[in-house]
Recover the amino acids of this structure.
């Protein structure tokens, strides 16, 4: 276990040649940092550096939008309505096919029960 006074002296930069532990010679704790120990001040500096390197959501979206290129179809209310109608029709057709498959299995006696969703 590392001495709390030692860590405090390191963090406040008071540790040096003439620093003495307040516990004196009878201090039972170590006066050395373990391998990989990160001081609070260093951790704060690393966090600040990480935040500085992190891009905002708006910047990320702009970069990704520019990566798409210029061969895209612009979205208008009319084109969106067409896309939405096609998507809903496709979804309805898939649901109808799944229901028909379940009905055929049920008619053949292979389906033993109903799920909660079917109920």
């Amino acid at each position: 276990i590392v001495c709390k006074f030692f860590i405090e002296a390191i963090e406040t930069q008071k540790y040096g040649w003439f620093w003495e532990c307040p516990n004196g010679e009878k201090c039972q704790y170590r006066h050395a940092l373990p391998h990989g120990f990160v001081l609070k001040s260093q951790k704060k500096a690393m966090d600040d550096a990480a935040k500085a390197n992190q891009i905002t959501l708006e910047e990320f979206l702009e970069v990704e939008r520019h990566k798409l290129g210029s061969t895209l179809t612009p979205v208008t209310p009319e084109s969106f309505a067409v896309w939405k109608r096609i998507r809903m029709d496709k979804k309805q057709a898939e649901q109808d096919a799944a229901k028909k498959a379940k009905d055929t299995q049920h008619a053949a006696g292979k389906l033993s029960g109903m799920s909660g969703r079917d109920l």
Observations:
- The two ends are 62 Å apart (CA to CA).
- Residues 1-33 form one domain.
- The chain has a mean pLDDT of 86.
- Residues 77-108 form the longest helix (32 residues).
